[in-house]
Homoserine kinase (Micromonospora inyonensis), 314 residues
Amino acid sequence: MSLNFASGPVRVRVPATSANLGPGFDALGLALGLHDDVAAEVTTGGVRVAVTGQGAGELPDDDRHLVVRAMRVAFDALGGQPAGLAVECVNRIPQARGLGSSSAAIVAGVLLARALVADGAERLDDAGALRLAADIEGHPDNVAPCLLGGFTVAWTEQTGARAVSLAPAAGVSPTVFVPQERGLTATARAALPASVPHADAALTAGRAALLVHALTADPALLLPATEDRLHQHYRAEGMPATYALVTALREAGVAAVVSGAGPTVLALTDPGAGFEPGTGWHLWRLPVDSSGARVSQGRLGHAERDPVAAGRMS
């Protein structure tokens, strides 16, 4: 069956995310109020990508761009490819910092492709979009909060990724400490051992269960609930400044974890005005994004094109 493509542009706003949240390795995630805006339309031929903000001048401007690659996979799932594409990205999520920039690009690509097909939502429903995005990313912990918003619990079944979104309690106050240096998920994963002691696995499982309760009902328990022995300390040698900051925050009573694969640090409770992270860190207080990815019609407007707007940090 041939596809009927939309005649005009569509746009999507996608939030930054923080995955793992300490003990919830590859399962838990949180959507944050910092956004990329991406618009796309079908053209008569070729691929053009314009990037403003984070990654401008570094990211590819053709089919190699991750948004376009995700769109191509989604178009295949929908049943066909357009003749050409024009894509505009206004990026505010830092690249390779552990804040879900790649997942945001993947989710944007999947949702834009679906919106550019007349009956795209019938061909690819929300559950299918999650499965497809997780397949592209390799795991669902970042794509789930990006799509659904809020605090998400994601898992993978034989049929693919699934997730639920829960509303964080009012006392959850995310703060991210973002360094200048970048990190790579593949490098961080390579530091993990093939197995861990049973006692460490059991403790971490208990903390992950407690974290669901702490995040949604009792933030006073966030400090013990974010204790992890599964992955963070194995990665410490590769990002010593990150691990030192997490340790300092936790010793000060702040529920701090490595954000995703790092090197950003996420605090789930306010560290207070008196806490000094030291040189080389940007402190951004961000709200939880409860909505997740949002698709609308038309090109990016003036506000969306501003690389400093849409939830810019303090």
The two ends are 50 Å apart (CA to CA).
